[in-house]
Amino acid sequence: MTLPNFIIIGAQKAGTTWLAHMLRQHPDIFMPPQEVHFFNFKKNFSRGLNWYEQHFKGAKPGQIVGEKTPNYLWIANEEEHRKAGRRRHQANIHESIAQTLPDVKLIVVVRNPVKRALSAINHYYRHGEMSPLWRIDDVLFGRKRHIAERYGVFDMGRYHHQIQAYYQRFDPSQIMVIVFEEEITQDPERCLQKVCQFVGVAPSFQFSRMQTRTNAFVSRRVGTALLTHVQPTKPLLTWAALHKPGIINRLDYLPLMGSRIQKQVPSAHVISQLYDYYTEENQKMFNMLGHSITEWIPS
Description:
This protein is α/β, with parallel strands linked by helices. It has helices at residues 16-23, 42-45, 49-53, 78-84, 93-100, 113-126, 136-141, 145-150, 159-167, 180-184, 188-199, 222-227, 233-243, 245-252, 268-289, and strands spanning 6-10, 29-30, 64-68, 105-110, 175-179.
């Protein structure tokens, strides 16, 4: 059975797409083109290992196999998911991964949690998972905060809490933590060499297009985004966004879909609240890493 040797488990909006895009260039690595979401969605997990394995059937003999699903870093139990209204999410993802793939290597990419949260919300806006008519201040600390909590906007930036859960189930040698600002941004070549050594492929491979931006913000028509809130179009448009983005792009160009969605920036007060929210968690993360990350500390 062909199953992953390594998984990029997160964090969402922290550079995992760039990392996966780079690793797919390596001739000794196979990664499916899409996120698999096997361990974090109940529906997919219930399909069993045979369904999971189908995503890796393109691997050639001798290749190291990996996958990237950044939501795997989002650890929550059944009660936490229930309270937040997350009906489709699998609880205790780290437990499922440890039981299924006890020897797998895990890669975690972390980024300033404040910037990660803001990037996540704007991602949800342009994909229609949050209404673009909702002000970002309201989504973060106002009357729509429950929406942000449902999507894990706050929890996904609690890196120490999430990583510690994985350390309890995996040997530390199986986990690599990459700091976006210090490694991917400042020295992507060295970062990729370290990852190659970690997963067990030749670090001498020459990667190309290391400065290519992935998942850059693309404005979306308000009408297209709002359609994903309307039944019965929601399932169809959600499927199209994942599997046939060209359909969404063509639909988005129709003038009747209204004005473009602009990236939202919260007020200075809300940004300050976000930094306060993550202060204690960030300090625990700094202690884990053995040093502070300047870019995570407000000036």
